[in-house]
Amino acid sequence: MGHDHGHAGGKHRWRLAVSFVLIAAFFVVELVAGLWSGSLALLSDAGHMAADVVTLGAALVATRIATRPDRSGRRSYGSYRAEVFASLLAVVIMLGLAVYVTIEAISRIGEATAIQTGPMLVVGVIGLVINVIALLLLRNGSAESLSVRGAYLEVLADTAGSVGVIAAGILIMVTGSPLWDTAIAIAIGIFVAVRAVMLGRQVFAVLGQQVPEGMDAGEVAGDLAAIDGVGDVHDLHLWTLTSGMNVATAHLVTAESADPHAVLDRARALLRDRHGVAHATLQVEPRDHRGCDEVGW
Fold first, then answer.
1. Model confidence over 260-271: pLDDT tens digits?
2. Which of 163, 178, 207 is a domain's end point?
3. Are residues 72 and 197 in the same domain?
4. What pTM was computed for the model?
């Protein structure tokens, strides 16, 4: 029972597209400026911009794939998980860049590096403006879609990177020490790694088919058992298919006098309205039925 699907990422595709165009264009500018100025902070931020481009592009492709009907007959849940895999790609890219920037920054300690602060400041300010625009575009969608959240966190990390680039440029101008460039590059790398770990935990919770965040399996079972006509509940499973699409399966044991149609309708409404489960597969069993509760997993 229950086939009311709604894909959260698809309705935010235009926000992803606009952000993708803005950041892809600026990435080229920042990369050239970073190579010209010799700033590791600027190059690390350009690397994060590259990750943004890949992440936003993957999220765009994933939201497109997720809404396509399956014609192979092999994907009974469609391609909704494409969005989750796009978020996993974002995690891998963010962690890889964080490690690279940190290693490169440490290797520069003790080296005399000439850094042109003018390009750093100009590009840092432009990057900050573009990142803020992208953040405003993606903010609402990040609360609903895992792939949009991955893109949002990437852009958030880049915003911090732009602030770091500006701070590094000012500090180098004031003190004359290029060590500020290295220190801020390491700080950016750590910030990105922490964000990647946070997103990774959410991704693996979905891939591991854990009970959706904010939902209590015991409470759901208790609510189902309290439905008029239901004597027992077993084989309850709750998980997230993709952002905004929670799924449940359960066996409901009913009394002899219970109307199975009414039980199904009440259970479906309860799961949808009280617990946010859009798709529920419910099996109604008479009390004298045997065998369904013998499965050990």
1. 889 999 999 999
2. 207
3. yes
4. 0.70
